[in-house]
Amino acid sequence: MSLQRFKGTNPVFLIVDACYSGSAINDLDGFNKNNRSTSTKGNLNTGENIYLLLSSLGSEQSYENRELGNGVFTEAMLEALKNHDIQGIGKADKDGSGTLNLGELIDFLTLRVPQILSSAIFKEDERFKEKDIQQTPILHEPERSKSMDFFRFNKKSH
User: Fold this and answer.
1) Count of beta carbons in the 10 Å neighbourhood of residue 7
2) Rounded distance, CA 76 to CA 57, Å?
3) Which of 69, 106, 116, 120 could form a disulfide with 139 if both were Cys (CB 3.0 to 4.6 A apart)?
4) For the chain, how are helix, strand and coil distributed in percent, rounded to 5?
5) 99 bridge partner residues
6) What is the rounded CA–CA span in Å between residue 40 and residue 10?
7) What is the pLDDT of residues 15-51, one digit of tens each?
8) Residue 100 β-bridge partners
9) Is this structure's pTM higher than 0.70?
10) Neighbour-count burial of 2, counting CB atoms closer than 10 A to its CB (0-12 exposed, 13-18 middle, 19+ buried)
11) Would you say 119 and 72 are in contact if contact means Cβ atoms under 8 Å apart?
12) Whole-angstrom Cα distance, residue 153 to residue 64?
């Protein structure tokens, strides 16, 4: 997979909410299916301005539910961007700066996706009863990517 045509442009965020989306980077040397981090070695050549956010490990499904109207990962992403306090700061913006970086986003998604999967919506769904369902969001190259700004909230002034 080559994303080189985007090299040198503004930052490009590739967000994939699909079963086994982490397999897009499975051929990377240093990739660990049990870990959320990957290395840059291998066939996936993203370039310095490409940021990959994937909904699940290469060995995991990405779950959805009709009640949510979205996949779990997408639902958590929307919560990170929509839910905000009275000052307009998003839930995922841990430092309250008004800017959500990829580190804050992946931290939020890593907590929120399992919470949604363990909620009543899934516990009462016959398809998932008594199954150990897991979904682990991945940020490709977290060492490089975590500080990259992703979203700015409209802060409300008092």
Assistant:
1) 14
2) 16
3) 106
4) 25, 15, 55
5) 152
6) 20
7) 999 999 988 875 443 444 444 444 444 344 556 777 8
8) 151
9) yes
10) exposed
11) no
12) 27
